[in-house]
Design brief:
This protein is an all-alpha fold. Helices cover 53% and strands 2% of the residues. The protein contains eight helices and two strands. It has a two-stranded antiparallel ribbon with strand order 1-2. Helix 1 crosses helix 5. The longest helix has 29 residues. The N terminus is likely disordered. Keywords: Kinase, Metal-binding, Transferase, Zinc. This is MOB3C kinase. It comes from Calyptomena viridis.
Length: 217
């Protein structure tokens, strides 16, 4: 089952496939284009994450959650060959932090998993949520559910753990691949976004606090 799960997640060149795109012509597609243009213009990332005047906060959060999911998917995919059952038998961030998996179906109690298993479960779980029209509605006029931001907090908290694992266990691989600047930019963007909208409990951020201090964050 694990091999099948990994086969579904990875394509031949060991990168994740982006799982969801925004439909052209929709409000969210326009917001996505606006956000990407700001990013590429080299603006300060703290300014880039701010809600544009007149826009809906839930639309803005939805666009970023999907975009971060796709980008973090790809980052992990580029180093998946270094993150194996043998090298990473526990999903962790150093000796101090261990992350257990829990969902509403197969794993009802927090369960120890290897890092590759955890990543596989995580990406499938997020994909299921962002493609669920009751949670991430795409039709015009359909409102977001009341628990939308809570769901996004859960998604972003778990995506943050991907950064924790990658930075603490695979940073040498990032450097060897020449991907350090790319990963750092993605992480900074993610961090400023979650901080702007208070989307993750500050205690979750502790494993990477030294990196943030190094950036003056």
């Amino acid at each position: 089952a694990m091999a099948l799960c990994l086969k579904q997640v990875f394509n031949k060149d060991k990168t994740f496939r982006p799982r969801k795109k925004f439909e052209p012509g929709t409000q969210r597609f326009e917001l996505y284009k606006k956000a990407q243009a700001s990013l590429k213009s080299g603006l300060d990332l703290k300014a880039v994450v701010q809600l544009p005047p007149g826009e809906s906060i839930n639309d803005w959060i939805a666009v970023h959650v999907v975009d971060f999911f796709n980008r973090i998917n790809l980052i992990y995919g580029t180093m998946s060959e270094y993150c194996t059952e043998r090298s990473c038998p526990i999903m962790s961030g150093g000796l101090k932090y261990e992350y257990r998996w829990q969902d509403d179906s197969k794993y009802k109690k927090p369960t120890k998993l290897s890092a590759p298993q955890y990543m596989c479960m995580l990406m499938d779980w997020i994909e299921m949520l962002i493609n669920n029209e009751d949670i991430f509605p795409t039709r015009i006029g359909v409102p977001f559910p009341k628990q939308f931001q809570q769901v996004c907090t859960k998604i972003l908290t778990r995506l943050f753990r991907v950064f924790v694992h990658v930075y603490i266990h695979h940073f040498d691989s990032i450097i060897n691949m020449g991907a350090e600047a790319h990963v750092n930019t993605c992480y900074k963007h993610f961090y400023y976004f979650i901080r702007e909208f208070s989307l993750i409990d500050h205690r979750e951020l502790e494993p990477l606090v030294r990196i943030l201090q190094g950036w003056g964050g």
